Amino acid sequence: MRADARKNRDHLLAVAGTAITEQGVDVSLRDIARRADVGLATLLRHFPTREALLEALLRTSFDELTAKAGELETSSSPEVALVSWLRDCVAWTTEYRGVTVLMAAAIEDTESALHASCVTLRAAGARLLTRAQAAGMARSDIDGADLFALVAMLAWLGDQPSLAPRADRLFGVVASAILTSAGSQPCQGGTPPSEP
User: Fold this and answer.
1) Per residue in 87-124, pLDDT tens?
2) From residue 40, how far is each of 18, 29, 43, 86 by CA, in Å?
3) Tell me, what's the pLDDT at 192?
4) Mean pLDDT of the region 169-185
5) Phi, psi of 131 (to 5 degrees)
6) For 186, which DSSP code?
7) What is the C-alpha radius of gyration for the chain, rounded to an integer number of angstroms?
8) CA–CA separation, 168 and 173 (whole Å)
9) Which residues of 148-187 are buried (b: 16+ CB within 10 A; e: fewer)?
């Protein structure tokens, strides 16, 4: 790819990232093109579909979360690695509003541009979970698909304005429920709300 074409592509991705953070994954492609100060045809030349745009935008983050799982696997205890990765994953999916719906669909759709990245990300979390389970630090009745679903659930909470203040505390509740008593530790949750 020529340097100017790469620069244009990178600019479109940066603008799309901002637009999705503000408006969610359903933001209009026409709006992204307008914000980038290009025509819709230019945007579609680089990214022929919304899914192609999202895959290009999200691939770097997927790769970073997958790499982070590998680093945690070798540098942290099993329970710390699992909870740290889970927290990072939830934080990232909350940043891009609505992405969890796309990720859940992409896992099941082998034709999706996001399928391979989502499967790789789920496998990275599953490895951390399996490691914690083997060490007796995590409950044995959940698997990588359950962990992926919990990420989606926790990210959804953070996406809801009325529930967002509870999201951090509920993350702690869920993380504590995943860990066994041998792996239980304070999970950096927020302060419990005063009302029931």
Assistant:
1) 999 988 888 878 888 888 888 999 888 888 889 999 99
2) 17, 7, 5, 37
3) 37
4) 82
5) -65, -45
6) -
7) 18
8) 9
9) bbbbbebbbbbbeeeeeebbbebbbebbbebbbeebeeeb
